[in-house]
Amino acid sequence: MGHGDEILFADAHFPAHTFGKKVIRCDGVSVATLLSGVLPLFELDQYVEQPILMMQPGKGIS
């Protein structure tokens, strides 16, 4: 991956295939577990203001 490239980790409710053909499924693995396994392998882009963005559940959604 180079500068400006993005990777998305999403739950099962995200329509990933609508964004592209390269989708890797990790059924049964939480996003937190994926991040803890993958983040040590990547150097985060220090040239952008926020190299990591995390979404939170909406109000009333658990």
Structure explained in plain terms:
By secondary structure, this protein is low in regular secondary structure. It is 13% helix and 0% strand. It has one domain. The chain is built from 1 helix and no strands. The longest helix has 8 residues, at 31-38. The relative contact order is 0.16. The model has no long low-confidence stretch (mean pLDDT 84). This is L-fucose mutarotase. Pfam families: RbsD_FucU (PF05025). InterPro entries: RbsD-like_sf, RbsD/FucU_mutarotase, RbsD_FucU. It catalyses: alpha-L-fucose = beta-L-fucose; beta-D-ribopyranose = beta-D-ribofuranose.
User: What structural category arises from helix and sheet content?
Assistant: little secondary structure
Instruction: Round the Cα radius of gyration to an integer and report it.
Output: 13 Å
Major sheet, described briefly?
A: none
Fraction in beta strands: under 5%
Helix content: 10-25%
> Shape from CA axes?
globular
Provide mean pLDDT, rounded. 84
User: How far apart lie the N and C ends?
Assistant: 33 Å
* Overall domain count: 1
DSSP helical segment count:
1
Low-confidence segments, given as residue ranges, are: none
Order of helices and strands: H
Number of DSSP-assigned strands: 0
